[in-house]
Amino acid sequence: MTDFGFSALKIALTREWFELSFISSRVHNEAGFEHIFKLELPERPKIPSRDDPLSPQTFERFKASDGRILDVHQLKSLIFRGGVEPELRPVMWKYLLDYWKWDLSVEENKQRAEKLKDDYYRMKLQWMSITEDQEARFAEFRDRKALIDKDVNRTDRSHPFFRNKENLALLKDILMTYVMYDFDLGYVQGMSDYLSPLLVVMENEYDAFWTFTGLMRRVHKNFEMDQLAIKKQLADLRALLEIVNPKLTNYLEGHDSDHMYFCFRWILVAFKREFGFDDIMRLWEVLWSDIPCKNFLLLICAAILDGEENMIIVNKFGLTEILKHVNNMSMKLDLSKVLRDAEATFHQLAAVQDKLPRHICEILGFGFDDSAGPSKSED
């Protein structure tokens, strides 16, 4: 797998854009003068150890007699606290990624899935029916096909599932079919990173495809050419870090690094390159719960950076050194600790939400129904 183009990103995410974005993280007094918002935070609470993953037996207790899912929020809370047991993932991920509907019976979901299966193969036939002569005059299709071929051959090749050429072919077929499903977006490098765990879990192409479309609805803006979604998330991360760790934020600003370029890969593919395959499946299902907030990914980023404050400041890292250090953290992060630290940060900020700037409350969902955390800190 190749890394994403940092130099291209640096051009796209201009200093002027970030300066405009960060205006919202500064407060104006009555005279109209700008000053940096500072807040004394309470001590970060201690978060209990992670729970056991959701089991098939526990999941059964959330089903009505016809299979409809009851108390979805509580079920998602359990997933946030412990993830999902591997044997349950093929079912649970369909719900989390909006392929199966919580409020439909099992029979209704199966009937709906059968129709979507037919839709999948119909779209697959569309691109497979394009002749070489047609393809020669269809540059955009040809370019996307070539990019998919290139990426498929370097996606998770160390995983046993993808040592099988037939499974690599499935990966390509699903991505090509997605091009037909959403030709406006097409294919962009990084999408194969999102698909590969879905295919491993689902084990068939049509279920993998429809869970992938659900996942892409969550993250597709990350892949749009204008990069506005990535820019906003980096700006929001910077604003969060300014509250959580103003010392580190000031250091980054003084070393031309507060644009947060070095977190681009974390956000683009939701830490896919930073954790092993088993950990990334657990992390993603936690994120898909949307608990304690929809931007929990940014809290994870902030918590990791907060923990690296001494390393960065004591060693006087500049942008190049920070980027190298962040990249070297790949496969060395403790997922359970990262999740506890991020959850603790959420509760720390929730305790003073009435004093936080409005845009921070919006990022964290404070004031909305889904903002309440699923667990309470220990005394």
From TrEMBL:
Acts as a GTPase activating protein for RAB7A. Does not act on RAB4, RAB5 or RAB6. Residues 83-291 form the Rab-GAP TBC domain. Transmembrane segments: none annotated. Keywords: Acetylation, Cytoplasm, GTPase activation, Phosphoprotein. SMART domains: TBC. This is TBC1 domain family member 15. Its main location: cytoplasm. The lineage of its organism: Eukaryota, Metazoa, Ecdysozoa, Nematoda, Chromadorea. It comes from Bursaphelenchus xylophilus (Pinewood nematode worm). It is found in: Cytoplasm. GO terms for molecular function: GTPase activator activity.
